[in-house]
Amino acid sequence: MRTVRLLQISAACILFSFPVHGVNETWAWVKGIWRNPRAVSTVFSCSEHVANEITYYLQNRESDEPLRILEVGPGTGALTETILKVMAQGDTIDLVELIPEFCQVLTQRYGGNNGVGIHCMPIEQFTSDVQYDLIISTIPFNNLSLDLVRKVLQHYTTLIKPGGYISYVEYLALGRLKYKFMRAKKRRIYDKKRKLLKQWRTKHQVRKKIVIRNVPPITVYHLKIGDRTQPQ
Q1: I want to staple 45 with a disulfide (CB 3.0 to 4.6 A). Which of 78, 86, 188, 209 is the partner?
Q2: What does the DSSP assignment read for 95-157?
Q3: Residue whose C-alpha is closest to residue 81's, from 11, 130, 21
Q4: pTM as predicted
Q5: What DSSP letter does each residue of 60-74 carry, written as one string?
Q6: Cα separations (Å) of 191 from 53, 153, 194, 208?
Q7: Neighbouring C-alpha atoms within 13 Å toward the C-beta of 64
Q8: How many CB atoms lie within 10 A of CB 11?
Q9: 3-state class of 6 per DSSP?
Q10: How many independent structural domains does the chain possess?
Q11: For 173, left (φ over 0), alpha (ψ -120 to 50), or beta?
């Protein structure tokens, strides 16, 4: 059953990715999804509308000081392209990607760029000597274990500067669709994950945007760590 599902995902990846990214990047997607299916939330790249929203606090910066940016789960760089375009002189970015095949593509595309660091490892193992002004995350929380979600959220709060922003995505309906087919034990774990994420948003959320013009539609959440502003 798992093999059939992965074949379906790989076929969709080839169908929708090849016309846009070409053979090398498409093949990297296929291998990455095949070997790490739970680490990839969808075969589709985020649209420019998602990219514009998730970089909201980069485009509407609160000071002229250079920013340190962390992108978690960049894949092969769909959002990275937009981030680099709106970065100002002196800004730097670190890309943390779990899947080796995706890291190879990122290195080929951005390895020679000044101010870009590429780190192929799980985010919970990534460390930095300095904190970040902005974290942009597209890792699929719904696919992770409850313990790993808790670890990642805690790690984000250590990596972000006080008053810094964390922007992350969640695909509409996908989680609820999977929920209908879960057994009781998995439903209880999923409910705990949802509660944990909701508590985190209630404490820190400052902006929320539903982006319909994406496949599938997506919600972008913006959180300000250390800020008690009421959620929007």
Answers
A1: 78
A2: EEES-HHHHHHHHHHHTT-TTEEEEES-GGG---SS-EEEEEE---GGGS-HHHHHHHHHHHH
A3: 21
A4: 0.83
A5: T-SSSS--EEEEE--
A6: 27, 17, 5, 21
A7: 0
A8: 12
A9: helix
A10: 1
A11: left
Please check whether residue 69 is in contact with residue 94, taking contact to mean a CB–CB distance below 8 angstroms.
yes
- For residue 17, being part of any structural domain is answered with no
Domain that holds residue 203: 46-224
In a domain, 23, yes or no: no
What does the alpha-carbon distance between residue 120 and residue 95 come to, in Å, rounded to a whole number? 8
- In the 8-state DSSP scheme, what is residue 38? G
User: CA nearest 41: which of 79, 69, 70?
Assistant: 79
In this predicted model, what pLDDT tens digit does every residue of 169-209 receive, in sequence order?
998 876 677 778 888 988 999 999 999 999 999 999 999 99
> The domain that contains 61 carries what CATH number?
3.40.50.150
The answer to whether residue 231 is domain-embedded is no
In a domain, 173, yes or no: yes
Q: Which residues of 58-86 are buried (b: 16+ CB within 10 A; e: fewer)?
A: beebeeeeebbbbbbbbbbbbbbebbbee
Sequence letter at residue 132: Y
